[in-house]
Design goal:
- The protein is flat.
- The chain has one domain: Butyryl-CoA Dehydrogenase, subunit A, domain 3, CATH 1.20.140.10.
- The protein is mostly helical.
- The protein starts with a helix and ends with a helix.
- Helix 1 runs parallel beside helix 3 and helix 2 runs antiparallel to helix 3.
- The chain has 6 helices and no strands.
Length: about 140
């Protein structure tokens, strides 16, 4: 939730292609609203899970949903950072580091978050393992 709110704050500081700021850009607002709705649904599911005893399959499904939502937030950050904020430099030049244009720290931080969030599907138990837990549970119900 906090990361999604930070993206909205950053969007208010970034100019949009058609004029104005990114927080008013219709495509950004739609993408932000979709992730926000997804996050609210997951939050409600987690609160229900905390209230009730849940199965391994439900826990696995929640883990997948949380991971995918966290990754969607970082994808929105990458979209917001945009190509222009992460320049490709010619590292064959001796002064390549000095040639880097001044940019806000948002772009590199967005890339770092995006790449780190990919690891969630591994360190928390791969998504495939979580899906296997769900399938085993469903197969057990079918018997």
């Amino acid at each position: 939730k906090r990361d999604l709110a930070k993206l909205l704050e950053e969007a208010a500081r970034l100019p949009a292609n058609g004029g104005g700021m990114m927080d008013r850009d219709p495509s950004f607002r739609l993408a932000h609203a979709r992730v926000e709705a997804r996050l609210a649904a997951i939050e409600a599911s987690i609160l229900r899970a905390l209230r009730d005893e849940i199965s391994m399959a439900t826990a696995a499904a929640l883990k997948i949903a949380c991971t995918e939502c966290a990754q969607a937030i970082t994808e929105l950050g990458i979209d917001l950072a945009g190509r222009g904020r992460l320049p490709m430099l010619d590292r064959d030049r001796a002064d390549w580091a000095d040639a880097a244009p001044a940019t806000s720290s948002f772009g590199p931080a967005a890339v770092q978050s995006y790449l780190f969030e990919r690891a969630q599907t591994i360190y928390g138990g791969s998504t495939e393992v979580q899906k296997n837990i769900i399938w085993r549970s469903l197969a057990g119900m079918a018997r």
